[in-house]
Design brief:
Keywords: Metal-binding, Oxidoreductase, Zinc. Belongs to the zinc-containing alcohol dehydrogenase family. GO terms for molecular function: oxidoreductase activity; zinc ion binding. It is built from 12 helices and 15 strands. With 347 residues, it is of the alpha/beta class. It has 2 domains: 200 residues, Quinone Oxidoreductase, Chain A, domain 1; 139 residues, 3-Layer(aba) Sandwich (Rossmann fold), CATH 3.40.50. The mean pLDDT is 95.
């Protein structure tokens, strides 16, 4: 099969022929219909993830059709259209037994712990625990994006932040994850305020559900908090840092009303200093969101089936597999790349 492949971190990947994957006894092989280009793929290629062994094929957001199954797979068969969380749970450890497969101690991640979906086919492990059926009516790009950014955002808002209709939501950073969070917050009936340094990103946020937007490019954290407070005088019920910087996390935390909830989705390049005085004084909650187990997907799928959430609207470009290496390199060098890129290996 054809796959995007690299054997050295930071060096441009190649498109080359590699051996077809083979399913493990509890796994499947999926022919990829679409796969999202995510900044997590960039971090992996840059060598920021210690779990990647070289040579490597990236890619972790996907939808496709099962082409082969292991002999222990019971719930799925060849021809099924499926997606999967990017954190694939083992289904057997204490975390999985408690329903928390997103923090499985034996987790596998396509595109990180093993070869991923920037390829014509991808192997997925522990299929009965992790695969999610995808209706034929779902747009391929929309279905692919459910594996990472939309699932992480949905769980962050619903299961971690416990966001309710009518509450205020602050989203800091309007890239792919941030815009997913904006869209989901709007679909849930929240009043969404978006913060970014780029007016184009903020315009996208308005288009996808933000009722107010704050450009923080020429403001300190304190000045941006003041602007957010002007937009939401009662304070913010739930804040989300979708970028992962010390300043963006502080902005989210300091904007909260007493007993508000901050959800950290963006990954930090280094451990940040957190304004713990505000956390203690306001009895604030700081919560992480690291994917979502397959059994929690029905609520997210229902929003899409009802037409209240349209992940495909975030997609601004669909490219062939041959263009993926350059797209990966371009994203690494330009944080202003807007919208979402989807790779279609069939092109």
């Amino acid at each position: 099969m054809r796959a995007v492949w690299f054997d050295r971190f930071t060096e441009r990947p190649d498109l080359r022929d590699v051996p077809d994957p083979v399913p493990t006894p509890r796994g499947v092989v999926v022919r990829v219909e679409a796969t999202g280009l995510c900044r997590s793929d960039v971090h992996g290629w840059l060598g920021h993830d210690g779990g990647i062994a070289l040579p490597h094929v990236p890619g972790h957001e996907l939808v496709g059709t099962i082409t082969s199954t292991g002999d222990q797979v019971k719930r799925f068969r060849i021809g099924d259209r499926v997606t999967t969380p990017f954190v694939c749970a083992c289904g057997r450890c204490p975390e999985c037994a408690a329903g928390n497969g997103q923090v499985c101690r034996n987790q596998t991640q396509p595109g990180f712990t093993h070869w991923g979906s920037f390829a014509e086919q991808v192997a997925l492990h522990d299929a009965d625990t992790n695969l999610i059926p995808v209706p034929a009516s779902f747009d391929a790009g929309a279905a692919a994006l459910l594996g990472c950014r939309f699932a992480t955002s949905y769980r962050g808002l619903v299961h971690q932040g416990q966001l309710e209709a009518g509450q205020s939501l602050l989203v800091v950073g309007c890239g792919g994850v941030g815009l997913s969070t904006v869209m989901i917050g709007g679909a849930l009936g929240a009043e969404v305020i978006a913060v970014d340094v780029d007016d184009t990103a903020l315009e996208r946020a308005r288009r996808f559900g933000a009722v107010r937007a704050v450009n923080s490019s020429d403001r300190s954290v304190e000045e941006t908090v003041h602007a957010v407070r002007n937009a939401a005088p009662a304070g913010i019920d739930v804040s989300v840092d979708a970028l992962g910087r010390e300043q963006t996390a502080a902005l989210g935390i300091l904007s909260l009303r007493p007993r508000g909830r901050h959800v950290q989705i963006g990954l930090f390049p280094a451990d940040p200093v957190i304004p713990m005085g505000a956390v203690i004084g306001g009895e604030l909650a700081i919560l992480g969101s690291h994917g979502m187990p397959a059994h929690d997907y029905p609520g997210l799928l229902e929003l899409i089936a009802e037409g209240r959430l349209r992940p495909q609207d975030l997609i601004e470009r669909t490219i062939p597999l041959a263009a993926a290496p350059d797209a990966l390199v371009a994203m690494a060098g330009d944080r202003s790349v807007g919208g979402v890129t989807v790779v279609d290996p069939r092109l």
